[in-house]
C-alpha cells in the first residue's frame, strides 16, 4: 500500500420521515455493521493500491472526528463506477450527505484532502451565524467543533464576497462558484460535484474557500484508523531529510506512549442521513 499524505487542512433525509422509514433504518443497523467489518477484513487481507490506500492526517481541519496523526485505510472501491457484474458483488454507492470523503484538492491535484459531504448535486447551501442550512433547513451537526474565539467572518456567513487575503490561485474556482452558482443568497451545487466542509469548522480550508469537489476527483472514503500517533503537523507533513529523521527518532523514543491505542482499528463512519436535518427553517424561509 502506498503511504500518502492526506492534507486535511485537515472533512437528509426528510425531517418528518415515516415510522416505517425509521423502523427500516433500525433494522439495517446490524446488517450495515457486519458489512462494514466484512469489507474491512477483505481489504486488509487482499487489498492492493487498487482497492485500499493508506493516508495520514497531518492537520486538524477534521477534528475531533479525525485527529492529527490518524493513519487511515481508504476504501477506493466505495464510490467506484459499478460495472454490469460488480454492482451485484461489491457495495458501490454515490457519495451521500454526511459521508467523509478523500479527494484530490481541485486547486492542486497533487494534494489530497479529507472533508465531509455537506451538499450533493442540486442542493442549496448557506451558512448563517455558523449554522449550515441545506435546502432551507438547518443541519444537525454534532460532529462540528468551533474552536476559535474570533472565526473568519467569511466562513461564519456564507456565501459572501471573498476575503481580500484569499490566495489568488484559488480565485478562479471561488469566483466561478460565487458568480455562477449562487441563487437568492444560496450556493447551488451543480451536477457531478459536491460541497464539502471540515468538522473543525473555524479552521478548515474547504468548499467555502475554493469551490466544489468534482465527482471524478473523489478517491474514496476512510474505512479504518489502523494506527493513531500523537505527532505534530510539522513531523507528519515535513518532506526534508531533517524532518523525516526527526520523526523516526521521535517514533523510536515515544511509540508506546504517544500511540493512541483507543483509536486503533476504529471504523470511520459518516453521519446518518436521517439525523442530519432539524425542523428549524433558515432565516427568511418562513
Index terms:
Umud Fragment, subunit A, alpha+beta, 26% helix, single chain, globular, 286 residues, six-stranded antiparallel β-sheet
Biggest sheet strand order reads 1-2-3-13-4-5
**By helix and strand content, what is the structural category?**
alpha+beta
* Secondary-structure element string: EHEEHEEEEEHHEEEHEEHHEE
**What is the CATH third-level topology name?**
Umud Fragment, subunit A
Distance between the termini: 52 Å
Instruction: Please report the first level of CATH classification, the CATH class.
Output: Mainly Beta
- The 3D shape can be described as globular
Per DSSP, what share of the residues sits in E-state strands of 2 or more residues?
Answer: 15-25%
Low-pLDDT stretches are 6-32
Individual helix count: 7
How many domains make up the coordinates? 1
Radius of gyration using CA atoms only? 19 Å
Q: What's the architecture in CATH terms?
A: Ribbon
Mean pLDDT: 79
Largest sheet: 6 strands, mixed, barrel
Counted beta strands? 15
Helix content: 25-40%
Could you characterize the architecture of this molecule?
With 286 residues, this protein is of the alpha+beta class. It has one domain (3-281): Umud Fragment, subunit A, CATH 2.10.109.10. 26% of the residues lie in helices and 25% in strands. The protein is built from seven helices and 15 strands. It has helices at 19-46, 86-89, 153-156, 171-180, 207-210, 233-237, 241-258; strands at 3-7, 52-56, 70-75, 100-104, 112-119, 124-128, 131-134, 137-139, 182-183, 186-188, 193-197, 213-214, 218-228, 266-267, 277-281. A six-stranded mixed beta barrel has the order 1-2-3-13-4-5. Strand 6 and strand 7 form a beta hairpin. The protein is globular and about 55 Å long.
Amino acid at each position: 500500500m502506498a503511504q500518502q499524505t492526506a492534507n486535511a487542512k485537515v472533512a437528509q433525509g426528510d425531517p418528518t420521515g415515516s415510522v416505517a422509514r425509521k423502523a427500516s433504518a433500525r433494522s439495517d443497523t446490524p446488517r450495515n455493521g457486519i458489512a462494514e467489518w466484512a469489507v474491512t477484513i477483505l481489504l486488509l487481507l487482499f487489498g492492493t493500491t487498487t482497492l485500499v490506500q493508506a493516508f495520514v492526517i497531518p492537520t486538524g481541519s477534521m477534528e475531533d472526528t479525525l485527529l492529527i496523526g490518524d493513519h487511515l485505510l481508504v476504501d477506493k472501491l466505495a464510490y467506484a463506477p459499478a460495472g454490469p457484474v460488480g454492482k451485484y458483488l461489491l457495495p458501490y454507492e454515490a457519495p451521500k450527505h454526511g459521508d467523509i470523503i478523500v479527494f484530490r484538492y481541485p486547486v492542486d491535484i497533487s494534494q489530497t484532502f479529507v472533508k465531509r459531504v455537506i451538499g450533493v448535486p442540486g442542493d442549496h447551501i448557506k451558512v448563517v451565524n455558523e449554522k449550515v442550512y441545506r435546502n432551507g433547513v438547518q443541519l444537525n451537526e454534532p460532529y462540528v467543533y468551533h474552536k476559535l474565539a474570533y472565526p473568519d467572518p467569511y466562513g461564519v456567513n456564507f456565501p459572501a464576497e471573498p476575503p481580500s487575503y484569499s490566495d489568488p490561485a484559488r480565485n478562479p474556482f471561488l469566483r466561478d462558484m460565487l458568480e455562477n452558482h449562487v441563487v437568492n443568497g444560496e450556493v447551488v451545487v451543480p451536477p457531478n460535484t459536491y460541497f464539502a466542509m471540515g468538522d473543525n469548522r473555524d479552521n478548515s480550508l474547504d468548499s467555502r474557500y475554493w469551490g466544489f469537489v468534482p465527482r471524478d476527483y473523489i478517491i474514496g472514503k476512510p474505512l479504518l484508523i489502523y494506527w493513531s500517533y500523537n505527532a505534530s503537523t510539522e513531523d507528519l507533513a515535513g518532506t526534508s531529510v531533517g524532518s523525516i529523521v526527526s520523526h523516526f527518532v521521535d517514533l523510536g523514543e515515544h511509540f508506546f506512549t504517544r500511540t493512541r491505542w483507543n483509536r486503533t482499528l476504529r471504523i470511520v463512519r459518516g453521519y446518518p442521513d436521517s439525523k442530519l436535518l432539524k425542523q428549524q427553517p433558515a432565516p427568511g424561509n418562513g
